[in-house]
Give the backbone structure.
Amino acid sequence: MFKKLIALTLILYPCTQILAQTNNQSYTQAINGTKLKFDMQAIPAGKFKMGSKTGKPDEQPVHEVKLDAFWIGKHEVTWDIFEPFLYRDYEKQASTSAIPAEVDAVTRPTKPYLDMTFGMGKANQPAVAMTQYNAIQFCKWLYMRTGVFYRLPTEAEWEYACKAGTEGSYSFGDDASKLGDYAWFKDNSDNKTHQVGQKKPNPWGLFDMYGNVSEWTYDQYIPDFYNKSKDKIAENPVAIPDKLYPNVVRGGSYDETANNLTSTARLASDPAWKQLDPQIPKSNWWFPEAPFVGMRLVRPAKTPSKAEIDAYYNKQPIKDF
C-alpha cells in the first residue's frame, strides 16, 4: 500500500518530493506547488511503559503499550507552513504554480479578529491557538497538497516519541535543572514562544517536545483512561473523541513550570480558552485565550484506507455555544 501510494502521489503530483522510501528513514516533505517543506523523523515500532508511578493520578497506572511505526514532525508546526493553509493570499505568495481546485476547496477559517501570533512572531515560530478541528483541517490541506496522509499523534504515540526509549521524568533523566537545555518554559522563555529547534533534541532527534507550545493529540481526555489497559498490553490505544471538550494536549508550554513539562504530564482542553470569543456560536477554529497551544504532525507507516482517511478529515465540527 505504501509503495502504491508513493507511485500514485508522484503521478498526481510530479513535483512532490518524498525522500522516505522505507519505514525506517526520516525524510523531508516538500509541499507540492509551493516553496515550503518540513522534516519528519522516523519512529520505530515497539513497546514502552506509558504513564508514571510518581505522577498525577491521571498519569497512572503505568501500563505497557505496543505501537506500530510512524513518522513524527522533527519540529512543531510553524506559521511558515500553517499560514498558507489559513489564508489564500498567503498561499498564493508561497506557491510556485496555480493552486489546484481540490486544494482550494478545503474548508478554511475566516480571518480572525485578533492577531493570532499574539505579537510573538511568525518566522520559524510555532503556530498557536488553533482548535483541534483547525489542526485536523490543516492536515487535510497537506493531504490535498502532497497526497500523503498526515494527522495528529495519538496520546500514546506522542509519549512514546517523547520518551524516546527512556523511563525517567524527562528524556534526559530526572534532573529538572537540566530542562533549560531542552525547553522554553516559565524559567527562561520571557513568557513567549521561540523559534523551533533552538534547544537540544531528545534521543530520537525531536526538538521542543518539552515547552515552547503544548501540542494537540487526537485523544479525548479521560482522567482514568489508563485503567482500561491495566495488567495487559494496549495495542495502538486511542480515546477517540466524541465530545468537544476536553481533549488532550501534551508537552507543556512556554508559561509552564518544570513539573508540568514531564514526558507523562497531561493537560485537558478547556472552554475557557474561548472565553473572550465574541462570535455566536463560538469559532470552530480558534482559541483566542490559548496562545500556548500548537501542534506536531504524525504520519502512520501503515497508510489507512481512503474511506478511513475521508472519515478522519471530514468529521463535522461540534458547535461550541
Summary: The chain has a mean pLDDT of 92.
